[in-house]
Amino acid sequence: MLALLRSSFKIAVDSLWVSKVRSVLTILGIVIGVSAVIILVSMGNGLRSMINTQFMSLGANLVMILPGKVDLNGGGFQQFAAMATSKLTTEDAKLVKSVTNVSEAVPFAASYLPVKNMGESVVVEVLGSDENYTKVMNWPVSEGRNFTVSEVNAGKKVAVLGVTTARNLFNESAVGKTVLIGSERFRVVGILSQKGGSGEMDFDKRVFIPLSAAKVLFGKLNVQVIYFQVLDRSQINTTVTQVKNALLRHHKDDEFSVLQSGDLLKSVDSILGAVTMALAGIAAISLMVGGIGIMNIMLVSVTERTREIGLRKAVGASFTDILWQFLIEATVVSSLGGVVGILLGFLGAFVIGRFISTEVTAWSVLLAFSFSALVGVVFGILPAYKAAKLDPIEALRYE
Fold first, then answer.
1. Quick one: pLDDT at residue 126?
2. Residues paired with 124 in a beta bridge
3. Which of 71, 131, 166, 312 could cysteine-pair with 174, CB 3.0–4.6 Å?
């Protein structure tokens, strides 16, 4: 059996080498499919890993209060609308902080605005908060300082920049310089330490200003979210219940939601997992198209090599010999396409990784290659069977 496979493999490779251009074009469909699977899955996995890292950096004892009723299984539009019509206030943050086992509670108001320095301009998320946001978000200032209690109370126009925004706007230290946020000038007093992320999820693009100044700049009186930390993680469920009861004294039940970071992480991870698999499925369609291409080319090859098949059968080649020859030929084509596709997939993921987070996993590579090899076998069966069933006398007469 081993000798038969070795002989069939050699014949298959020789046949492919004779028709190089046809072989390359046949392989191309598989190459595109495999590389697409690896690249798209790596993008999905990279996004999941980045979000997981961001949540972990915030800490497991972080809890957030969002406006409206949050549906972790969907309802994105409704949540966006709830953010715009939020009824949460700074007084709610003070109320939450008074609850037992809450160490700190910080309100946030946010808006996307252009931030300018001379000829440089970037549009980033500008967040208004109080001086304790660095504690709650576990995000210390690396250069300069944070704004103070007196600056928050007085509504001073001071700003703390994320490191990416600072680099984009200044060629030197940004501390002490002035930036234009929206239509107002703010003095930069500090630069935050690097938090990580990429694209629109790059935390280091954010800019923080005092909440009192943000309300004037945004034209919003209420806040969009309140973060609070619990002292004893083991009592987090009890604390969440107490916070809800405290807020219900001033709000209706559908006006806010209290969510643990772990709940959000599980929901986001589940959604992104489904998206990743959907992307892999879409990319796998191109593998199927490549498989159909292999079948078509192999059927043409059987027709062209009818006399060769008849001659082989006339000198003693059996049904199994011919079947294996064409099956191996189809599998070699798809497997070679799989190998090239893996290399291009790694290269594509590396290039895209310079702009957004990507992560190539072993399972995606193994899945893509296995599927490509399987495509060769499945779509090679019909041509192989057709070749093996040829009558040697009729085959030798074929012109």
1. 94
2. 113
3. 166
Q: Strand pairing of 62-67 and 256-260? A: antiparallel
Q: Can you list the residues of the chain whose pLDDT is less than 50? A: 75-78
Task: Count other C-beta atoms under 10 Å from residue 91's C-beta.
Answer: 10
Which pLDDT does position 192 carry in this prediction?
94
Name the β-bridge partners of 210: 129
Does residue 393 lie in a domain region? yes
For every residue of 126-153, DSSP letters joined together read EEEE-TTHHHHTT--EEEE-PPPHHHHH
pLDDT at residue 234, as a whole number: 79
- Taking residue 389's Cβ as centre, other Cβ atoms within 10 Å add up to 11
Bridge partner list, 122: 115
Closest CA to 184 of 140, 214, 162: 214
Q: Determine the residue type at 29.
A: G
In single-letter form, the type of residue at position 32 comes to: I
pLDDT at 147: 93
pLDDT score recorded for residue 275: 73
* Tokens coding 399: 């012109």
Q: Given this model, what pLDDT does residue 196 score?
A: 72
Distance CA 345, CA 41 (A): 10
DSSP state of 193: P
| Residue 222 shares a structural domain with residue 125 | yes
The tokens describing 248, both together, are 């219900």
How far apart (Å, rounded) are the C-alpha atoms in residues 90 and 183? 25
- Are residues 280 and 234 part of one domain? no
Residue 316's SS3 state is: coil
Same domain? 237 vs 368: no
pLDDT of the residue at 258: 86
Closest CA to 135 of 35, 76, 61: 61
